[in-house]
Specification:
Helices cover about 25% and strands about 15% of the residues. It is built from 8 helices and 11 strands. The structure holds zinc ion.
Length: about 325
Amino acid sequence: MSLNFLPKRTAQGKISATALLISLCLSTQPAQAALTFNFTYLSPGQGFDDPTFGAARKLALNSAADLLGEYFVNYTATLDYDVTSSSVNESRLASAGSSYSVIPGTFQRTTVQTKILTNGATDSNYFAADGHIDWNFYENWGLSDSVAANEFDFKTVAIHELLHSFGFSSVVNQNGGGLEDKNTGTPDTWATFDKFLTNADGVSLINNAGVFAGSNVNALTSGSGSVLFNGQNAKDANGGVAVNLYAPTIFSPGSSISHLDDDTLALSELIMASSVSAGQKSRELSAIELGILRDIGYTQIVAPAEVPVPAAAWLMLSGLLGLVSFGRRKTAL
Ligand SMILES: [Zn+2]
């Protein structure tokens, strides 16, 4: 998981000739990213538009979007985001989302998700932005690939937020209502993600008719292991069992159910956990996260290592991986 950062520092300078060769070879590959992100910054003079720090923040957001785009090379879409910013002393680092169509008794993709999965053919909200992001710049942010221990990893958090807009998100509220906040037992509108929710006994929280059973409401606030994601791809990546979602005993609107469970050790450091500590984090999606994305419709998603490259480039990549391992062992000494 730390392959991204530790080796770079130790290997620097010692392998410069080889590294240069590798980077030249890689840079001659055609651009792979097939998703295009257009960010419109709506908080003049502050945050991303700050006269001193704004340019670097925008660069970091674009860089994170490109990293995420590497998983989506088999899709082609231009995604428009409205981006706002704030500076508030609170626990929220950032938030993001994308709208849904409301049709009772159905599971809906987000506008961003629809656009990606139709390769740009369907823009559910026409001229309005497809998604939105709000960033809290109160905290110290590490914008580069070397994040200090007292900084939050901007790129990791940006990937996390973008994935919410891609549909890695629940709309279940604490009463068991959906987008329309209907009473349990009544068809409501849900996110595609919600189709895969079960309780600890493996019973779906919401049936195929879009009805949340009242008997499942308690599960939403029953802690680790009480609400799970049971999509087949996610299970395949998780040893055959459904994946624990974040379901704290006090419901946290916008956070409960929409994240992996931080209290499950194997999930706590993954990008889609509900919280993140300061310091350098992984920007790589885990097999479990990729499985969930496949389950919610992104069947063509690829881990970057799976992207086909010419044989010569494979050799170079192998060489690079070898150096990375070497650097890592050195660091561990
Ligand atoms: Zn989140």
